[in-house]
Write a structure and sequence with these properties.
Layout (H helix, E strand, L loop, with lengths): L1 H25 L3 H20 L10 H22 L8 H29 L2
Helix pairs in contact: 1-2, 2-3, 3-4
C-alpha cells in the first residue's frame, strides 16, 4: 500500500507535467520542454518520497534523515544534469549542493510548522 501511495503522489504530477513538456516539445519550445520535464522528475521523486512521513512508527529524525538521503540520491543528480546550473568545477557542484540543502531546510521547516498548525 505504501508503494502504491508513493507512485500516486509522484506519478500524478509527473504524468501531468510530462504531458505539458511533450506539448511544449511539439510546439518547438525545446528548452521549455526540457525544463518542464526536469521539473516533472523532481516532482515525481519529491511526491513519492513524501510518503516516508506517513511511517508513524519511525521518529521524525529517522523519517527526515531517510527523506534527505532519498532526495540526495535522486534530486541532487537531477539538478546537476538539468542544465539549470553552470558546472565547470567541483566547487560549482558543491555550491549546488549547498543550495539544495538550504532549500531543503527551508521547505522542511515550512512544512514542519504547517504540520504543527494544521495537525497533519
Amino acid at each position: 500500500m505504501l508503494v502504491m501511495n508513493a507512485l500516486l503522489r509522484g506519478g500524478i504530477p509527473f504524468i501531468i507535467m510530462s504531458g505539458i513538456a511533450l506539448l511544449l516539445y511539439f510546439q518547438g519550445k525545446y528548452s521549455d520542454a526540457k525544463g518542464t520535464f526536469v521539473a516533472s522528475l523532481i516532482a515525481f521523486f519529491v511526491g513519492a518520497a513524501s510518503i516516508i512521513y506517513n511511517i508513524e512508527h519511525w521518529s521524525l529524525i529517522k523519517r527526515s534523515g531517510v527523506h534527505f538521503i532519498i532526495m540526495l540520491i535522486t534530486i541532487y543528480p537531477i539538478l546537476l544534469l538539468s542544465g539549470w546550473f553552470t558546472i565547470a568545477s567541483v566547487f560549482d557542484a558543491v555550491k549546488i549542493f549547498i543550495l539544495f540543502a538550504f532549500v531543503g531546510i527551508i521547505l522542511w521547516s515550512l512544512f514542519f510548522i504547517l504540520a504543527r498548525i494544521f495537525s497533519w
